[in-house]
Specification:
64 residues; mainly alpha; Arc Repressor Mutant, subunit A; two-stranded antiparallel ribbon; elongated; binds FE2/S2 (inorganic) cluster
Length: 64
């Protein structure tokens, strides 16, 4: 699904970027240009970013 129409960025591209180590909106902006033009995709990008970071955190073995 397209998240950023200005730059044609999909949720899959954002998730792949997070898989490859990106963790912040600034990093996503620098790498994919997402949220760098009209800004309408900012909230949606944050949701995809946070969801993906949570998935990665939950997949980590707990240190107990
Ligand atoms: S839709 Fe992403 S910057 Fe416009």
């Amino acid at each position: 699904m397209y998240i950023c129409l200005c730059h044609g960025v999909t949720d899959t591209q954002i998730e792949n970027a997070v898989d490859n180590g990106l963790e912040t909106m600034k990093q996503l902006k620098d790498e994919l240009k997402v949220a760098s033009q009209c800004g309408k995709c900012c909230q949606c990008t944050k949701k995809v970013l946070n969801r993906k970071l949570m998935q990665i955190a939950e997949a980590q073995p707990s240190v107990a």
